[in-house]
From TrEMBL:
Pfam families the UniProt entry points to: FAS1_DH_region
Organism of provenance: Mycobacterium heckeshornense
Cleaved signal peptide residues: none
FAS1-like dehydratase domain ranges (all copies): 30-168
Name by which UniProt lists this protein: FAS1-like dehydratase domain-containing protein
SUPFAM superfamilies: Thioesterase/thiol ester dehydrase-isomerase
Amino acid sequence: MTDQSKNELRQRLDALVGQPISDGQPVKAPDPVNAAMIRHWAYALGDMNPAYLDTEWAKQSRYGDLVSPPVMLQSWTMAPPKLAGIRERGGVPVEIKNNPLQFLADAGYTGTVATNSEFEIERYPRVGDEITAETVFETISDEKKTAMGSGFFVTWITTYRDQSGEIIGRQRFRTLRFKPGS
């Protein structure tokens, strides 16, 4: 890759920072926070916290009613998976109409691996909350040489809000977009 094409690639990456990762932002959860989904989550993960499961206990607690596990925040706004064509999409469970990072794949950075996710919780989601999520690109590193190949660490941040616009929490999600074998 020439210095000019590297500079152009860097400029395109820098232009993404602060921009939404997709159209249709913010995304609204299909259902309000509800006891049934909280119960399913709690049992699936073996987290029997009475704040999630026992209405009477929760009403006497500092929460005043049932709350959702805070790391369940992402699940409230997740799009339903589309299984048809999932293999052709490289295992991605949703269709992406306008992939803002397609130019990286076109430049040979076809590998993707999730590296980490971090949550900041402002408060526990409450039963009845109607959650929205807005996701923007937060940072994109300089090109790094890794065991997977040379690539860029792409971090986006999702801000979760309730029906009043109050921030419930944030999630940073980082992936490495790399050239396999480079």
